[in-house]
Amino acid sequence: MFFSVIVPLYNRPVEIKEMLTSLLDQTYKDFELIIVEDGSKNKAEHIVDKFKDKLDVKYYFKENEGQGFARNYGFKRAKGDYFIVFDSDIIVPKDYFLKVIDGIKEHGYDAFGGPDAAHDSFTAIQKAISYSMTSPFTTGGIRGNKKHVGQFHPRSFNLGISREVWEKTGGFKLSRRSEDIEFSIRMINSGFKVGLIPDAFVYHKRRTSFGQFYKQTHNFGKGRIDIYCLYPKELKPVHALPAIFVLGLIFLLMIDVINLLTMDEIYFLHILGLIGNTFLAFYTILLSLHALVTTKSLKVGLLSVVAAFTQLIAYGSGFLSQYAHKFITNKRG
Fold it and tell me: Which GO molecular function entries does the Swiss-Prot or TrEMBL record give (predicted)?
């Protein structure tokens, strides 16, 4: 089984070096690597060139169009039976391809995805973000798990498709933001067998600061509404939970301010505030304990709480703002 690994790259030469290094140690060697530089100003060609005598790697530079179309550019030039899509900020475990082959043979997948994990070399913030993106107490609970909500939709940081899937679907139709979810839905609707290979995980760095993480997950929330506009049936109640969380926080803050100013004069609001703050405290304690047990680090566990709240608020606010833009502001205009 021959694999073509396609990696879109945009102004991240340091990241690609680490990923390429991890591919040197693969137990299964029958793969090619296609790096597509998507209009970067900070190019990585000089780094890729250093690996050409060690890996079957090809480097292409194209005008910036977004990661979705950069992957299509790589698909058109790929020779593999299966195409593997990675983000540039990952480290690939040495037995990755063997796990993929086992999963394909066992389940007969036409397309598949794998989960992500935190590597020992990651910073405390990166480990905290990794926890948040995979925790059952955040939106991460529906990503990359055996027990997920509805049909599994592979994400583009770790995604594989057969050549037949590419030839029939034409690849990505969106260039950015939720392009992988749209592609996954279209593959499923085309009759292909799509699923999760739990053991085919990668170490995913994601973002290096909470500011970057907020921006990324805010766009995820917006993207969920974009998907809803294309495929209304794909919006599940669970997708709205972060938005409800944000609205609840705003409502609770308003109640707390009123109670502070009126000093128990409004009994009903006092009871609501007590219930809301108790629930929030219980959730925070439960999240903290789970993070501490999961990460086995006090520092990472505490940062994981910050990451979880960042994710929920960012995703929820993105969801709400895009919903307002699509269905409220546009109608008024």
Answer: glycosyltransferase activity
